[in-house]
Structure formats: structure tokens, C-alpha cells
């Protein structure tokens, strides 16, 4: 069932979602705000854009051309609807394509690549009640795995271009290994915790293609107070 929402802190952005499909979460917002934009940013790719939430948010902070790549036809159609509802057709394009096929057609054309990937391997249990088969490709690596995503990012990025990804904290070492293999140097790293005193839940990593060594470890981000409300630091990320 389709529902129409606004995004907390972005009241002028209208967002159509389907309750049977993968919907955006806090990880989506954190990744969108973690991306390092500057005045020289002209071309951005969002791998697995789903309903185009990340391009919608990023469009508030840059005039760059944004290309979303989404393999699922239903999600692609909703992304098109969201772009049209927000009158962003001239700035955001979405392609119904496999990321691997998209990368084959690229030759280091992008300043930034972003990805909120499937968190779980094909045979790995996600401990989630997947009521719809449309959820599986968004949560499990059925169409593309983590290494392939990073290899595709390297194929798309210009020298000095940036790749930003969010993932489960326990896959941090795997991510760094793939970064190094495909000449992406990690530059900024931030672990995200659901509540203070708990283990890290996710990690945000920003890297530069063919960049120099040297990484900045950012302060940990606590998502919720003990009462379940968002922390001040998280709410600041929702501010337009």
C-alpha cells in the first residue's frame, strides 16, 4: 500500500513509500548527511537508490546532477514518482538497472558515489520478518555483494572522487579490505550506536579513490536516549 510522508526536518519534501517494500530508515538520513559535498561536485551516483530518498535530501545541499540506480522495478517507479512530486526532474535521474551493468558503461565520470547497500549476505539470517519478497533484495546480497559494490564505485569515480557507505559495524574490516583492493582510501569513519553503552550498530565510511593515506575517526554518534527519543546530535542532522 502506498503512503505519502514528509521527512522529519524536510517538510517541503514529499515522499511516497510502499508499506510492502523497503522504506527509508535512520541509516538513510545519516548516510545522506555524511556525504562530503563541495562546490566542485558536479556528478553524484546513488547505488540502490530505492525510492530516491538520498537524492531528494542531497538535492537540498548541492546543484550537482544526481543519478540513482535501482534494480527493482517497483522501487524505480516510486522513485520516479517522488522526483516528479518534488519537481526535481531536471536534477535527479533514476535508472532501472543493475549496478554492475551501470558501472560497465562508466569510465570514472562521477565525483561522488553513495550506497546504502543490502546489509546481509545471501544465506545470512537478518532476524527480520520479511513479509514481502520485495524486501529481500534490499536486505540481502541477492543481486550484488559488498565487494562488487565497492568495485563498481571505483569504476565510476574520478581520481579524487569520494565513496560514502553505511553498513553493519561487524563488516567494518571487510569493507576496509575491499576499499584497499580497489584503491579507495578511507578518510572519515564514524560508528553509530543505538544507545550509549551498547555495541556499535552501524558504521559510516567515506573514502577517496586513489587518495592518500590518513583517516579521521569521528566522535561516536549515539542515536537514541535511554527513553527512545532521538539524541540532540541526530536531530541536528534532520535540520534543513
UniProtKB/TrEMBL annotation:
Does the record bear Secreted in its keywords? Answer: no
Regions crossing the membrane: none
In this record, what's one Pfam family? Answer: MTS
Q: Which residues form a coiled coil?
A: 78-105
Q: Tell me which UniProt keywords the record has, alphabetically.
A: Coiled coil, Methyltransferase, Transferase
Gene that produces this protein:
yabB
A GO molecular-function annotation: nucleic acid binding
Please indicate if the UniProt record lists Calcium as a keyword: no
Ranges for domain Methyltransferase small? 30-191
- Provide the GO biological process annotations: methylation
Superkingdom? Bacteria
Name of the protein in its database record? Methyltransferase
